[in-house]
Amino acid sequence: MLSRFLPPCGSDLMHPTRRAVLIAGASIALAPPASATPAMLAAAIRGVVGVGNLQKGRVTFEMPPLVENGNAVPLTVNVESPMTEADHVTAIYVFNEKNPQPHVISVVLGARAGKARLSTRIKLADAQRVVGIAALSDGSFWMGEADVIVTIAACVEDVN
Amino acid sequence: MAADTKPRALLHVPATAKRGEVIEIKTLIAHPMESGYRAGPNGSVLPRDIIQHFVCTYNGEEIFRAELSPAIAANPFITFFTVATQSGTIAFEWSGDNGFAAREQAAITVE
Question: What SS3 state is found at A154?
C-alpha cells in the first residue's frame, strides 16, 4: 500500500519530496467517514420499516449503561411477544448511531423460537444510542432504544 | 485463515429437553471480525474480514438466521432460543469474507 504514497518518478522514501508528503496527506483525507450520522440511522430504519408505521414499545435492551471497552459490549434484545403461530416476531434489527455503519445485526426467527430474545457482543465507536426494531407477524413494527456511554471506543486503536 | 485449519467453535445446546420446552442455544466461534476501518502497522487500512451470515437448522429446517456487520465483536457470540420439538440434530453454519465457512452440529434428545 505504500506505493500509493510515492510520486510517480519514485523518489527516495527516507527523503520524501514536498510533493510526496502532500499526496500522502491528501489520501489520508480521503479515508472513509469516521461515523454514521443520525440521518444514516434514520435511512437504515426506513429501509427496514418502509412505509409501515413504527411504534414505540415492546423492544427492550439489556445493556450496561456505562462500558469501559467499546470493543465488546454485551447486548441483549428482548421483544415482548406470545410467540404463537398467529402472533410472533419475524425479525429483529439492531442499529447504532455513531459507528462507521448504522447496521449492527439483523436476525430472522419465527414462532418456533418460543422466545424473542437475542444476545451478542458488539463494538461501539463512541457513547451513543442503540436502536432495536422488531417486525411482527401482523406486519407491525416496534422500536426500543438504549443509551450507552463508552469510555474506550472501538475502531480507533491501531494494530501494532 | 488457512483452509486446512478448522475454526474453533463452542456450542451450548442442552443434551436433553422436554417436548415443547423453550431451550437456550449459545454459540461462539473464533474469528477476528476485522472491521475494515482500522489502520495497520504501516498506516494503511486493514481489509475487512468478517462473518456475514449465520444459520441454524433443526433437523434440516431453518429456525434462526442472522446477518452480521463489522459492528459485531471479535469471536462472534450469538445466543437465541428455540422450542425443542423432536430428537435430532441442530446444525450451525457460519460464512463470510475470504471464503470463510464453518459448520458444527449438536445432538438433542427430546423426551
Answer: coil
Nearest by Cα to B55 from B100, B103, B23: B103
3-state helix, strand, coil in chain A (%, to 5): 20, 35, 45
Number of H helices, E strands in chain B: 0, 8
In this complex, how many residue pairs, one in chain A and one in chain B, have their CB atoms less than 8 Å apart? Answer: 113
pLDDT tens digit sequence for B63-105: 999 999 999 999 999 999 999 999 999 999 999 999 999 999 9
Architecture of the CATH domain A38-152: Sandwich (2.60)
Q: Where are the domains of chain A?
A: 1-31, 38-152
Q: Which residues of A touch B43 (CB under 8 A)?
A: 1
| Residue B103: CB atoms within 10 Å | 13
Q: Starting at the edge strand that comes first in sequence, how are the strands of the sheet with B22-29 ordered?
A: A59-62, A73-79, A117-122, B77-83, B22-29, B9-12
ipTM of the complex: 0.91
CB nearest to B65's CB, from A76, A108, A160: A108
DSSP A58: S
